[in-house]
Design a protein that fits this description.
By secondary structure, the protein is mainly beta. The chain folds into two domains: 86 residues, no CATH class; 119 residues, no CATH class. The chain contains three helices and ten strands. The strands form two sheets. The protein has a seven-stranded antiparallel beta sheet. A three-stranded mixed beta sheet has the order 1-2-10. The longest helix is centred in the N-terminal third of the chain and has 14 residues. The relative contact order is 0.15. The N terminus is likely disordered.
């Protein structure tokens, strides 16, 4: 059974306020800003173009983009996968506290690559970046499609104690980049200590309802109409 996504586009754009629903893995045509193809006034063209690009990017957002980044699937050689390890050094901004702004450093990483072997051909699925400074931590995760194209690039920053009593240390800021979907998201926990860990949620907690009474857009229905 196809899973369904549904989320409201809040007032990110003045002319587009809709509750959009569809199938997680489907590919849809770009959404219009206001549901029409009318030519905007000359003074509004720049704003309309910005809104159109934003709506187009948000129409590619899927729940699994978030869950795959926040709940990383563990590695498993028992699934017929292979792994290779290497090290990598790159120049980047020094983000340590009390460091002069603009300071750059050379940081070392351990790289773990997950590959699948088929017909004598190896394909890269995921690349894990482990920061070696002050210990080992997962700093970045990249995933690739069957053609070797980068589809998701997730970076993890600023580990802090989470939950009551600081039971776990987890990244408090997560940056998700989907280059082909043309969007980037930043997820930040403002109060990590208040996060409830290891709790079971009732199924209805994962159902998003149109409580705002927004106009609804069913992307599956639009797609069927377009294909006729």
């Amino acid at each position: 059974m196809a899973s369904i996504f549904a989320w409201p586009f809040y007032r990110v754009m003045r002319n587009f306020r809709r509750f959009v629903k569809g199938t997680n893995n489907a590919v849809y045509d770009k959404l219009d800003v206001d549901g029409s193809n009318s030519e905007p006034a000359k003074g509004d063209k720049k704003r309309a173009m910005t809104e159109k690009l934003t709506v187009s990017a948000l129409s590619n957002l899927r729940p699994q983009h978030l869950t795959d980044a926040l709940m990383v699937r563990p590695i498993s050689a028992s699934d017929g996968l292979s792994y290779s390890q290497s090290e990598f050094y790159q120049e980047e901004l020094d983000t340590r506290p009390q460091t002069k702004k603009g300071t750059r450093i050379i940081r070392g990483y351990f790289i773990l690559e997950e590959l699948t072997l088929s017909g004598g051909e190896a394909k890269l699925l995921r690349r894990f970046w482990f920061d070696r400074v002050g210990g080992i931590r997962l700093a970045r995760l990249q995933t690739f499609d069957d053609r070797g194209l980068l589809i998701t690039d997730v970076s993890f920053f600023d580990e802090k104690p989470f939950g009551e009593g600081g039971a776990r240390r987890l990244p408090s800021r997560i940056e998700i980049t989907r280059p082909h979907d043309r969007y980037k998201l930043n997820v930040t926990y403002q109060a990590p200590e208040s996060v409830v860990l290891d709790r079971e949620y009732r199924p209805e907690a994962f159902v998003l309802e149109n409580k705002w009474q927004l106009p609804e857009v069913d992307l599956d229905a639009r797609q069927k109409t377009t294909n006729r």
